[in-house]
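Q: YqaE/Pmp3 family membrane protein, please. Structure only.
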Amino acid sequence: MLLLVLSCSLLLSETSASVPLPTPVSGDPDPAKVTAALKEFSSLSGKERRQRFRAVKSAVKQFKAEKRAGREPLASTVVQVIVAILLPPLGVYLHEGTINSRFWISLLLTLLFYLPGLIYALVIILGDN
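A: Structure for YqaE/Pmp3 family membrane protein:
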């Protein structure tokens, strides 16, 4: 909640269409700055508050889309292969980072016959590198 309020207060000073995401701050924020940001945010009209929340939501969506576009794996390839041997759909999920058609195919193959699900998961994990 505090991060959302701080993001909104940072967005107040931004007037451009593209909103950069605030960098994470190590440690606790300065209480005086938080109080000032809360006062500034509470002084806004309802319409402007909604606009700020929409801007924050769109910035978060943009961040998630950029993260997905980079396709950073959730785990290393070795861990993915080990997990795929034990539970193939979970290995595919760790590799893809989301539940998509590849996950469902892997789940179906694993439930019907374990070996095809295992082979499919290993092909997905090792073939995309």
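A: Brief note, in case it's useful. DSSP finds seven helices and no strands in the chain.
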